[in-house]
Amino acid sequence: MQTEQLLVLSQRAQAPDIKLCRRLNGFCKSPVVGIFFTTVSSLGNGAFWYAVGLILPLIYGLEALPLLAIYILNGLIGVAVYKALKATWVRERPFISYQHIFKACATLAFPRAIRFMR
């Protein structure tokens, strides 16, 4: 009985997500939108943030080191939370579960920092 209730609760929780996904998915028919989201996604994959972290001390000198320490700590906490959520919550990409949602962009690999922490 509890399993059935959890399934119903899960479906109710996913319904708005799928509805929004279907609506936004229509915009992805434009190649410009796909290129935009692929570019934004790749910026979040680590290399951009590593470069920003390395540039801070070059611009601000030693004053940037406390900020850089916070920056690194936040990154590590973020990766830990991400890994914990991915391990406990199962949510397939919508285009896998729903045929009416198409895959607009290439599926990108995990950020390098996450790969090293496995």
Description:
72% of the residues lie in helices and 0% in strands. By secondary structure, it is mainly alpha-helical. The longest helix has 25 residues, at 64-88. Residues 108-118 have low confidence and may be disordered.
What secondary-structure arrangement, pairings included, does this model have?
Elements: H1 2-25, H2 31-43, H3 47-60, H4 64-88, H5 94-97, H6 112-116
Main sheet properties: none
Cα separation of the termini: 36 Å
Shape: flat
Radius of gyration: 19 Å
Number of domains: 1
Helix content: over 70%
Give me some keywords for this one.
flat, 0% strand, mainly alpha, 118 residues, disordered C terminus, single chain
In short:
With 118 residues, this protein is mainly α.
